[in-house]
Amino acid sequence: MPIQIPTRLKDGTPVLLRPLQSEDEARLREGIARLSDRSRYFRFFTGARHLPDSVVKRLVDVDGDHHIGWGGLDMQAEGGPAAIGAAHAMREDNGPEAELAFGILDAYHGQGLARMLIAAVIRDCLEQEITRLRAEVLSENRNAQRLLRHIGATFVDCEGPVTVYRLACEEAEACLRAAPRPSGLEDVYHVLDARGRRAA
């Protein structure tokens, strides 16, 4: 069974964090449709409510090496667990750099979920010898840029409406561990550190 991290958001909402699986396709598709047009534009650079099947399938085609992906589920959502956020790191080859992307459902912004998911992705990246992440963010997406800078990302370039950042995975993890951590982030590191000790 894939590793699972039960925890809570800052407001107490019970959530489950785990690596994405192909079985999550329908749930992820529903979550994308529930994003506001603005948040969908920020994440996918398009406001289209429904993304092409090929895009959604790629998001759940996680192998833990070339594509690392973690998702968050609201465990008390009406109708059963619902997808509320995801973070991904993708690389084309076996090189040390991957592309980082993340998105959180609007109702869950500011609850610490993005940091938890990014922390899990970065830990897996380090285990797969991915040492650098590159993130392309729309220049108007101030919240995402603020979060990236908070975990040590540095500005690289502006490419039209897109701002490019790069971060070293070890430095980013050190920033996440050193900053005051909500209980959710503590839970992430508690579970992932224990996994690392078992694998050693």
List keywords for this structure.
single chain; alpha+beta; eight-stranded mixed β-sheet; 8 strands
Tell me the span between the first and last alpha carbons. 19 Å
**pLDDT under 50 segments (min length 5)?**
none
Global outline: globular
Can you tell me the CATH superfamily? Gcn5-related N-acetyltransferase (GNAT)
Do you know the CATH topology? Answer: Aminopeptidase
Q: What's the CATH architecture?
A: 3-Layer(aba) Sandwich
Q: In the CATH hierarchy, what is the class? A: Alpha Beta
Strand content: 25-35%
- Rg from C-alpha positions? 16 Å
Order of helices and strands: EEHHHEEEHEHEEHH
Work out the number of β strands: 8
Q: Considering DSSP H and I runs of 4 or more, what fraction of the residues is helical? A: 25-40%
Output mean pLDDT.
95
* Spatial order of strands in the largest sheet: 1-2-3-4-5-6-8-7
Overall number of domains:
1
Estimated structural class: alpha+beta
Outline the biggest β-sheet. Answer: 8 strands, mixed
Q: How many helical elements?
A: 7
